[in-house]
Design goal:
0% strand; Tetracycline Repressor, domain 2; DNA-binding; Tet_transcr_reg_TetR-rel_C_sf; Arc Repressor Mutant, subunit A; HTH_TetR; 73% helix; mainly alpha; elongated
Length: 199
């Protein structure tokens, strides 16, 4: 369950339960399809409690995406923090993405799903999606910048597109060949960069 603390560092059990419930249902069924009454009922709280913690549904959705963002950042930071060579760190990040695609209940990328439901770039939900994607692209660019001499940005865009494609199709059919294709795509980019560095 998601653990959330208030301004005094105390755990707010009701807020944690609301966010965990919303996260589970939003991801499994879509955001627009789920109303606050359903979340309140399944979280076993009152509507007043929901609105005390989240002034509106959009605030709850943004918090859901921020929690997903924090979880992914923590996972990637742990990998990068191991101090392994950049190619191995990128392989490990790609491997963690593939593991997620293979996991039970996988329904695609929470951020791409949210962007499809909230296409207005000015909407707070869309802004939360863009913030996550900027961080991910920057992280991949930094890793690739430590491999070879070619500009890292085009290769990073390639990795992000490979990841997006794998996440979008991984829930539509057998995820195994999709993950294999994604991981081979990352390996191919790494081979290109390391070959260029050795020439």
């Amino acid at each position: 369950m998601v653990t959330v603390t208030n301004a005094h560092g105390q755990v707010s059990e009701a807020r944690s339960r609301l966010l965990a419930t919303a996260t589970r249902i939003f991801y499994a069924e879509g955001i627009h399809a789920v109303g606050v009454d359903r979340i309140v009922a399944e979280a076993k709280v009152t509507r007043a409690t929901l609105y005390r913690h989240f002034p509106g549904k959009d605030d709850l959705i943004v918090s859901y995406l921020r929690e997903a963002d924090r979880a992914i950042r923590s996972q990637v930071d742990t990998i990068v923090g191991r101090g392994m060579p950049a190619p191995d760190a990128l392989r490990a990040v790609a491997g963690s993405i593939a593991d997620g695609i293979r996991s039970p209940g996988f329904r695609g990328c929470a951020f791409l799903n949210a962007a499809a439901e909230y296409p207005d770039p000015a909407h707070p939900v869309h802004q939360a999606v863009l913030a996550h994607r900027r961080w991910f692209s920057r992280t991949i660019t930094e890793l690739l910048g430590r491999i070879g001499d070619a500009p890292a940005e085009p290769a990073a865009r390639h990795v992000v597109m490979l990841r997006d494609g794998a996440m979008a199709t991984g829930c539509l059919s057998d995820p195994e060949p999709i993950c294999e294709t994604f991981l081979e795509g990352v390996e191919s980019l790494l081979r290109q960069r390391t070959a260029g560095a050795g020439s």
